[in-house]
Every structure is written in C-alpha cells, then in structure tokens.
Design goal:
The protein is α/β, with parallel strands linked by helices. About 30% of the residues lie in helices and about 20% in strands. α2 crosses α3, α6 runs parallel beside α7 and α10 crosses α12. The mean pLDDT is about 95. The structure holds alpha-methylisocitric acid and iron/sulfur cluster (SF4). The site of iron/sulfur cluster has 11 residues, from loops.
Length: about 650
C-alpha cells in the first residue's frame, strides 16, 4: 500500500516505535527553532542538560515576541539569548528581523526535513512539505541535545482541495472553512495533509497561512506537497538547490478525507471568542469596528502585504478605525519599500509597527473598552488582545482592508476589481539581521537580574491529597492559564514572579489560594490547555503547588508540558463524573503504582470515581521523578 507524504517523512526520521496511530514514536529532528518568550526557559533547560553544542543540523533562536523594552528585563532576555546562541552554535535572529515562522519559511524551511519549535505555530513550515511540530521548550531543548522527539503517532487526515479560489477569497478563508468543519479540537492527534488538484493554485505563503492555523484545530501539524510552486518559491529565495519533489503515493490511504472545493469558499470570519466560531462575512456585515490589525505569523507574508498595498492604493481608511500593519519580516518590508507599495500603505493611513508578533499576543494595540477589532491573526481568545471587554474577529487581509476603509465589517467583494498579485521571481534577500555562529565562543553568557534559576521540584509522592482549587469548562486555553501581554510576558524568565498571574483573568485569588492551601487540583473540561506551547502554563501552576489536572481531554502540547513539569494529567473515565466534582472538594489519589486506571476519592462527597493516566512508560518515569527538570538535576547530583 502506498504512503501519505507525512508517513514518508516520518518513516525517514523514525528512530523508535511503529507508525501505528496512537503508538509512541521517536523522531529524529533536523532543525529546531525557539522564540524569545519560550526560548529563555528552553535555553536554561538546555544549559541544565550539559551539552556543549547543539547536535542538530540547524538550530535557530528568534526574538519576536517581547519587543517592548520598558525596562531592563526584556533587553536582558534578548542579550542572554544572543550569548547562548553564540556559545552553543545556534543561529540568532536579532530583534526587529521579523516573526519566527515567517522568517523560517523564507530562509530555512526545506522539503522533507523535520522541525521542532517552541511555539505552537511551528507547523507553518508544513507549507513547503516538511514535518514541523510545535512543542514545549523542554522537548525542543532535548532535540537540540540530540535526543529524539517523542509523540503519539497521529492519524493522517487527507484534506482534498479541488477548484480554485474566487476573487477576494484567500488562504485565511480556506483555513477558516477547515476550522468550521473540524472545530478547535477536531484535529487532535491528527496531521492534516493537503492534496488534490487545488493545491497547485496556492502559493507557498498561502500554504503557510493554512498550515499555520491548522494549529487551531488541535492538529499535530499540517503538510502540503513540495511541487513546482514550492520550487519557484525557493528559487525566489535563492534556495532552489534545496528543492525536492515530494508528494503522497497515488494509492496512499488517509484515515479520513475532508473534501474542500476552493471555488465554493466565500469570505469567512471567526467571531469572538474562538477561532472555530466561523460565519460568512456577509452574515455580520455592517458591524461597526474600532480597529484593524494586519500581520502575525498567519498573514504577514509578501503576498499578503502586496495584496494589502494594492487594495489600499489611492484609498483612505475610515476616521473611526485604527489600522496597524506588522510585516512578517524585514525582507518583506524591504521588498515593499523597494517597489513603492509601502507608500500606498502609509498614505492610506496605516500605522506601521515593528516586524514582530506585537498585537497578536497583546504587546501593544489593546483595543478600547468594548471595542471591536478585526485581525488577520490566528487566535481571538477572550482577553488575548489586552482588553477583556474587546470583541476580536479573525479575517483575511482582504476583509481586513475592506473593513478598515468602510469602518464596519465589510465583504471585500464590495471593493470591486480584485488585484492580481504575483510573487516576483526575484526578490531582495536580506539576511543581515541573522547572526551565524562562529566556531568558538570565548565570552561569557550574561544573565540579567530578571533571569532566575529554574526551581527545584521533589519526586512524585505516593499519594496526592488536596482541594480542587479551580473548576473550569471546555477549551481552557493557555492564555486563560497564564495570559500574554507586555506586563506578564516580561516575567517569562522569572517563575516565582510570573506564577502570581496564574489564572489571573479567570480568578484573581487563584495564586494566593493555591499557595495558602499548599497546592491542590484543577478540574477542566474538553481540550484543556489548547493554544500556545508556553511551558509556563505548566511550570507556574506547578510552582504554586498544583499536583494534578483532571480533565475530560487535553490539548497535545500542554499535556506533554504537564508531564515534563511533574503535574499528573488525568482524564475522567466517565465524563459524567465531571459534574460530581466541585471546587473546594477534597480529593485523594493513590499513586503508589502509576497504573493506567486510577481511583480518585472525593472525601467531601464520600464517593469515588475512576480516571485514566494515558501515558507511556517513559512519560510515567518522568512523572515519578517529579518532571524532566528534577530528572536532570537528580542525574547531575549523582554525577
Ligand atoms: C501564541 O501565539 O500564543 C504564542 C505567544 O506565540 C505562544 C508561545 C508563547 O506563549 O510564548 C505559542 O503559540 O506557542
Ligand atoms: Fe507570534 Fe502571534 Fe504567531 Fe504566536 S500566533 S508566534 S504571538 S504572531
């Protein structure tokens, strides 16, 4: 039987396990990437592992998230990252160079390779036919130290594209159509593999947009074939020699197939507060808006900003709207400047922001109270913009521009003639803000006072007792667990300080209560921990004494992070039992043996229920030691 493209690349990198859906496999990782807000922890962890240099073919460290330098903290982090990169042989992308996923796609992504990144949108690189996976910093640090990346073999869902997109409909609408069908948990433990006659109608940046936001379905990653379109893209990036043709065999078997006729897709929009709350733009047309933000790793490519420039040319945005543009990379900005397209954007009234994540993670541009903000980003969780009462909608660049012009949600087809955007066969290449490591590093790694040592954790006790500190519903995101924004993110290298903000937008008293009670349990619904890869959403609760999370189901990356930091992830055997546990109930779990089925005693209610511990033996042993950090420290003490 033939193979899917994902299976081919996995097979070529398989170092452990069998390629059976659900079986644990170990993958050899070719490339790694980190960004600053997850990177400082990842490199502290890498340093603790004691390797003298990275063992991957290529490792990259980007600075794109915490860009505000209100005081010394972020600047110290940037300096630490630059020193570490030089010391361990890592390519460093300086602050201002651009967003990690956009830069990686432009300059480093290679068909057939594997990439592990400490950011959930790492799958963007699937746009050129590679297996690119997001993970917690620890797993990325381990990959840099030459260890395999372990995951459950996903099933491969085929997304069959036919037809071609209509005018004013673009890649964002395609992925919103997928999200509408799959929801934010429909991709869990799956790889979304795109194929079919429609693929060739999409450019690499468009494929990148679709692969990027596949993350929002909960998928492990997304992948496109590597074809002539990929070749042209790599050629324009002066990397044609890295092209190989890659595709699924004709008789490849997918676990399931989702048919999508591109010609039938119309402009779509995700309503507050979830990326799967998708409607047609025409259904909400006329809603007045306050802000439009264009950019993020989803929609900041040269293709997207050329479209934005063409649509804004000769027009003026509404007096009631603030329009911001964050280019994905310096290269994108430079190319827009060279052709004069940047002028069209400036003259229309746009505010040009730095080439970085910016408003996407609440680093500036928080909307006004009750404000309506249209964004070309990938997440619209409540409060992520920095304004709790804001209503954030997710749209394509085309819909964003049309709405900015009319001052209300507008179907872009109202703009008349659709500009034809062709990517130039040759573009200006700019690698000036990458620092490529030299053979020997003789300096010293500088750590500012905000970079605190990693905390110590004890091995897992035989019995867990404590109160349910918080009970939550479905789809709790890591933004709910530990929000972004400039104030909190400046503390990413300081666990004691950042832990004060755990669940701060859900329950202000949480951190104090957890500490006062000597820790306890969290109860969640389906898809607990969706969204970001931030380890802080596991490490900071651990620091506050959280012992276990009992949920109906978990998001993949967060589950791994919980294990890595010694928090026991348990799932309700019978989902009805969720209703029988209340905040404040005292629970008791015997963990003398880490069996796959365990009993939880609710001593407040005088009853018991069963939970599952769905982990491999390797993961259980990590948990027993108190997490990966404790395991490494134990090993070092022994030595
Ligand atoms: C995000 O989009 O939520 C982030 C910020 O990029 C995170 C990483 C982080 O929290 O630093 C992600 O997606 O993994
Ligand atoms: Fe940055 Fe937003 Fe992309 Fe996360 S989703 S990497 S914050 S641009």
């Amino acid at each position: 039987m033939g193979q899917t493209l994902a299976e081919k690349i996995i097979a070529a990198h398989l170092v452990e396990g069998k390629m059976q859906p659900g079986e644990q496999i170990g993958l050899r990782i070719d490339h790694t990437l980190t960004q600053d807000s997850t990177g400082t922890l990842a490199y502290l962890e890498f340093e603790a592992m004691g390797a003298s240099r990275v063992k991957t073919a290529l490792s990259l460290s980007f600075v794109d998230h915490n860009m505000l330098q209100n005081d010394f903290r972020n600047a110290d982090d940037h300096r630490y990252l630059q020193d570490v990169a030089a010391k361990y042989g890592i390519v460093f992308s300086r602050p201002g160079n651009g967003i990690c996923h956009q830069l990686y796609l432009e300059r480093f992504a290679r068909p057939g390779y594997t990439l592990l990144g400490s950011d959930s949108h790492t799958p963007t690189a699937g746009g050129v036919g590679m297996i690119a996976i997001g993970a917690g910093g620890f797993d990325v640090a381990a990959a840099m130290a030459g260890e395999p990346f372990y995951l459950d073999m996903p099933s491969i869902l085929g997304v069959k594209l036919t037809g071609a997109l209509s005018p004013f409909v673009s890649a964002k609408d395609v992925i919103l159509a997928v999200l509408k069908k799959l929801t934010v948990k429909g991709g869990l433990n799956k790889i979304l593999e795109y194929y079919g006659s429609g693929v060739k109608t999409l450019s690499v940046p468009e494929r990148g947009t679709i692969a990027n936001m596949g993350t929002e379905t909960g998928a492990t990653t997304s992948i496109f074939p590597s074809d002539e379109v990929t070749r042209a893209f790599l050629k324009s990036q002066k990397r044609e020699d890295q092209w190989v043709e890659l595709k699924a065999d004709d008789d490849a078997k997918y676990s399931d197939v989702l048919d999508l006729n591109l010609s039938e897709i119309e402009p779509l929009i995700a309503l507050p507060h979830s990326p799967d709350n998708v409607k047609a733009v025409s259904e909400v047309e006329g809603t007045p808006i306050d802000q439009v933000c264009i950019g993020s790793c989803t929609n900041s490519s040269l293709r997207d900003l050329k479209m934005v420039a063409a649509l804004l040319k000769g027009r003026k945005i509404s007096d009631h709207v603030s329009l911001t543009i964050s280019p994905g990379s310096r290269q994108v900005l430079e190319n827009l400047a060279a052709t004069g397209e940047l002028l069209d954007i400036i003259r229309a009234g746009a505010r040009i922001l730095e080439n970085a994540c910016g408003p996407c993670i609440g680093i500036g541009q928080a909307p006004p109270t009750d404000g309506v903000s249209l964004r070309t980003f990938n997440r619209n969780f409540k409060g992520r913009s920095g304004t709790q009462s804001a209503k954030v909608y997710l749209v394509s660049p085309e819909t964003a521009v049309a709405s900015a012009i009319y001052g209300e949600i507008t179907d872009p087809r109202k703009l008349g003639v659709y500009p034809k955007i062709t990517l130039p066969a040759e573009i200006t290449i700019d690698v000036g803000m990458f620092i490529f490591p030299k053979k020997r590093f003789t300096g010293e790694v500088r750590r500012g006072p905000n970079i605190k040592p990693l905390p110590d954790f004890a091995p897992l006790p035989n019995k867990l007792t404590g109160e349910v500190l918080l009970k939550l519903g479905d789809n709790v995101s890591t933004d709910d667990i530990l929000p972004g924004g400039s104030e909190i993110m400046a503390l990413r290298s300081n666990i004691p300080e950042i832990s004060k903000y755990v669940f701060c937008n859900v329950d202000r008293e949480f951190a104090d209560r957890a500490l006062k009670k000597g820790g306890g349990f969290i109860v969640g619904g389906e898809n607990y921990g969706q969204g970001s890869s931030r380890e802080h959403a596991a490490l900071a609760p651990k620091y506050l004494g959280v012992k276990a999370v009992i949920a109906k189901s978990f998001a993949r990356i967060h589950l791994a992070n919980l294990v890595n930091f010694g928090i026991v992830p348990l799932t309700f055997e019978d989902k009805q039992d969720y209703a029988r546990v209340a905040q404040g109930d005292v629970l008791e779990i015997d963990l003398t043996e880490l069996k796959s089925k365990l009993r939880v005693r609710n001593s407040t209610k005088g009853e018991e229920f069963q939970v599952a511990l769905n982990l491999s033996e390797r993961e259980k042993s990590v948990l027993k030691t108190g997490g990966k950090l404790a395991a490494i420290k134990a090993k070092q003490t022994k030595a």
